[in-house]
Write a structure and sequence with these properties.
Length: about 290
């Protein structure tokens, strides 16, 4: 056998498991979602072709509008705050001894089951006997609010949980970016008399911008996929104040068995995330700087 052909066969053999997994668990479901979005199908009866009717229903559906509004608000709450806190922690740990140990502690919530995290925080934020309200009363003499039943506070409460859980992941990414910045830049700036503050704004942030772009894109995508915390902690309530897009998809598909309408809403969510990602990539040309 030709050596080049043999190498190609072995190469395809090694990547075959990944390709099969990508095909079975990603590409086929993606194409199926687009197909089902044009059908009236409950999972059992014969599908009926509806064209774009499911999409028009989605945009006129008050639940869809509420879910999209809540998801956008949740994204605004979590993305900037999560990125800022992760950057702050990464900068603080960059030159600290036992950095690996601290990184482990911050990363532990990331690998912890989201359901377990939601249950723990559900008890912590309980308005009657939760630990957060107990501490507020004992330390500050303040009666704590009803975190998970107040219409104004339920989404910020879920945002706090998500920021806490994802802090370690973003922090590790920022920490890797910081360690990739050459010390020559800082040594040269010190010779020129630059202060620590000037070094951060003129060297660290510009050279960390590629990492910031990646973290921002991932954070935006994750914020639009929120489901587990809302499902476990609030069940989309109260009065659908924490009713998110993925929760909306879940209700349509697995409670109402309206797979066509659920797939149409999923396609809309996919398009929104795609547009936001492309927009972030385009805008990044103005503020992302790559070291030469």
């Amino acid at each position: 056998m030709n050596p080049k052909r043999a190498n190609a066969i072995w190469g395809f053999a090694f990547i075959a498991p990944q390709l099969i997994g990508l095909l079975v668990f990603s590409l086929i479901p993606l194409i199926s979602t687009f197909v089902i979005s044009s059908l009236d199908w409950d999972g059992f009866s014969t599908p009926k072709f509806l064209g774009l009717e499911n999409f028009t229903y989605a945009f006129r559906n008050p639940d869809f509008q509420k879910a999209m509004t809540n998801t956008l608000y949740y994204s605004v709450l979590t993305v900037p705050a999560g990125i800022f806190l992760a950057l702050l922690v990464a900068v603080a740990l960059n030159n600290v001894r036992l950095r690996i140990m601290y990184r482990l502690f911050f990363f532990m919530p990331v690998v912890t089951s989201s359901v377990a995290v939601a249950i723990v925080w559900m008890w912590l934020l309980n308005g009657d006997f939760g630990l957060v309200n107990v501490l507020l009363k004992q330390l500050f003499g303040v009666k704590g609010p009803q975190w998970l039943t107040d219409l104004r506070l339920v989404l910020p409460s879920l945002a706090i949980v998500s920021i806490w859980k994802g802090l370690g992941f973003n922090m590790v990414l920022f920490l890797a970016g910081l360690q990739g910045i050459s010390k020559d830049y800082y040594e040269a700036s010190m010779i020129d008399g630059a202060t620590k503050n000037q070094q951060f704004w003129r060297i660290t942030l510009p050279l960390l911008s590629p990492t910031t772009l990646f973290v921002t894109i991932i954070a935006v995508i994750d914020s639009f996929k929120v489901f587990d915390t809302a499902f476990v902690m609030t069940s989309g309530g109260p009065a659908k104040a924490s009713y998110t897009m993925v929760y909306h998809l879940y209700e349509l598909a697995f409670k109402n068995f309206q797979f066509g309408r659920s797939s149409a809403a999923a396609v809309v969510l996919f398009v929104v995330i795609l547009v936001l990602t492309i927009l972030q990539t385009r805008l990044s040309r103005k503020w992302v700087h790559y070291a030469e």
